[in-house]
Amino acid sequence: MTMVNPASMPQRGGRLAGLYSTAMHRLDALPLSLVQLVSRLAVAHVFWQSSHSKLASWPVTIQLFTYEYNLPIIDPGVAAVMATAAELSGAVLVFLGLFSRLSALMLLGVVATIQIFVYPDHWGEHLTWAAPLLLILARGGGVFSLDHLAARVIRRER
C-alpha cells in the first residue's frame, strides 16, 4: 500500500479533496497490529459465547445437534463435543494470540461446517466471522499477541 502525502497532492479538487487526502494519510498510519487485536477480540467473543451457550444446557445442545443441525456421517454427540471444544479452545487461543494462525484455521473450519451443513442461508453472518479469521490466518496475531512474544524469546535465545 502506498502512503499518500497530502502536501504533495495537487489541489485540483479544492478543499474537499485536501481533507480527503489528509484523512487517508492519517488512516494509513493506523497500525495493523491494532486491527489484528480488535479482530482477535471480536472473533474470540463470538466463539466464547457460542461455546458457553452449548455448555450451559448440554441436553439442549445434544438435541440441537441431533434434530436441527443434522450433520452427515458423524454422531450428534461426538459432533457436539467437537464443536464445543473447537469453539472454546479456539476462542481462548485467538484471544491470547497463541497459535493464532492455527486456531484461526480451526475456527474457519467451524464456520465452513456451519455454512455448508447447518445454516447455508446465513452466509452474511458467516462472512462477518470469516473476514477477521482470514486476516489472522494471513497476517498472524500481531504485535499484541503471545505468538509475537514467543517469537521474540526464541530469536533472543538463538
Describe, in plain words, how this protein is organized in 3D.
This protein is mostly helical. It has two domains: about 1-30; about 30-155. The protein contains seven helices and no strands. The mean pLDDT is about 90.
Number of helical elements: 7
Secondary structure tally: strands: 0
The N- and C-terminal alpha carbons lie at a distance of: 33 Å
Main sheet characteristics: none
Fill in the keyword field for this structure.
158 residues, 7 helices, mainly alpha, flat, 2 domains
Question: What's the short version?
Answer:
With 158 residues, this protein is an all-alpha fold. The protein is 76% helix and 0% strand. The chain has 7 helices and no strands.
Fold topology:
Layout: H1 15-28, H2 32-56, H3 58-69, H4 76-96, H5 100-118, H6 123-139, H7 146-157
